[in-house]
Request: fold
Amino acid sequence: MKAKLSVDCVGMHCPVPLAKAGEALQKLAVGEVLEIVADDEDIIEDLPAWCRVTGNEYLGYAREGGIIKAYIRRKV
Amino acid sequence: MGRSSVIQARRMIYADYASSTPVLQEVKQEMLPYFDELYANPSNLHDFALKARRAVEGAREKVAQLLGARSEEIVFTSGGAEANNLAIKGVIQANKARGRHVVISAVEHYSIMHPLQSLAREGVQVTRVGVDEHGRVNVEELEKAIRDDTILISVQHANHEVGTLQPIKEIAEIAEERGITFHCDGVSAAGIVPAKVEELGVDIYTLSAHRFYGPKGVGALYLARGVRLLPQIEGGIQERGYRAGTENVAGIVGMGKAAELAEREMSQRLEKLRTLRSKFIEALRREVPEAKINGHPSEVNPMYVHISVPGVEGEAVVAELSSRGIYITSGSPCMARAAKASHVLAAMGLSQELIRGAMLFSFGIPTSEADVARVAQEAGEVINRLRER
Reply:
C-alpha cells in the first residue's frame, strides 16, 4: 500500500504507537494514508478501535516477519 | 487546612487530583532556596555542598517517615514511572540466575507493563492475574500463578483508574513464604492513604511526589535492606549507586516537605475526602440514577469516584465539563491522549458500553463541599443532555 508517511514504532508498546499515529496523522491532509510500523501485537486490535474512536479509517495490516505494517486513512 | 488556592480563585473546579495535585505553598516555599541560593552539587566536599546534601538527606528522612522506613532505604528518582522501571528491570536483572518469571495483576500501570513487555523479548515470562468486578486482585489465583522460577511479584497498592486498594498484606505474606521479592506500585496511594511498609510487608514500594501535593519530576523507591536490584541509570555514585545523576535537590526537598505534611495531616485529609466522596456520590445519584460507581465500595482510595454511565461517551462529558471550567478525566492520564480502551476496566469485566461511558472525578485538599455539589449538578446536566441526543 502506498502511504504518504510512515511512522516507526518498532520496540514501542501500545498505547504509544496510537499516540504516535495521532501525532503523525496531523501532518497529513484528509484522505492521505499513514503507515505504522510496529512489533507490538496489541496494535492489531488497538488500531481499528482507535480509528473508530477518532473517526479515521482503518485500512488493514500486513506482516513482514516479526514486523506489522498497519495502514490508516485520515478522515477528520 | 483552609489553604488559599489559585485554582479556586479562577473559579474553575479542578476535580482531577488523581492525575496531579497542586504544590502546597509550604512545599513551594521550602523548595525555593534550592534554585538560586543553595545551588551546589550535593556530591561535592565543600561546605556549600554540605547544605544541599543535608537538605537531600533531611528530605530522605521525611519520606522514610511517611513509609515507616529507614532513610537509607529510600532512593530518589525522577518520578513514579522511573521508580517502577527501576524496580521491575532492576530486580529481574539482579536475579536472572534464579529465574525469569514475574507475576503481576491485570490492572497495573503501563510503567509496570511496558518494561515487562520489553523484557519478554529477552525471555522474561509474565503471568497477569485477574481481578474481580471491583478491580481487586484474586489472591488465590495469584498464589497459583507462582512458579519455582518466579523472582518477582508486582501489584499496585491502589489502582490508578478506579482507586481500588489491593490486598497487599495477603500478597506480601505469600511472597515472603515463597521467598519472592514483592514490589508494590504505591503511586496512587502513598501520601493519601496509610502506607507503612512494615505493615504492608512489601520489599519495594514506589511513590510519586506530585500525587500528594509535591512537585512533578520527583519520586522515590523504598528498597528494603537486603533486596537485590541493579541500577538502570548508571554513571555515578548518587543514591547509593542505585540511580546515577546529580540530585534534583529542589524537587527532593519539595517531596520531603510534602511527605511531612501528608504524614501529619493524613487522618484529617482522609476524613475530608471521605465526606466529599459520599456527598458527591449522593448528589450524583440524585442527578443520574443509572450511574454505576466503579471500584471497591469500601477498600478504595477515597479521593476517587470512578463512574460509568450507559449511553454516553466519557470523553464527551470531559469535553463538555471542560468548557464549563470543570476538569475531570475519562481514563488514566497516560492513556487519555492515545484514546485506548482501558485494560483496567476490561479486566474488571465492564461491558464495552460501560467502558465507553467511564469517567473519573477525584477530589483533594482544596476541594470544598460546594465544589462537589456544583460538579455533581453540572455533570448531571451534561450527562443527561448527552444521553438525550
Summary: Chain A is about 30% helix and 35% strand.
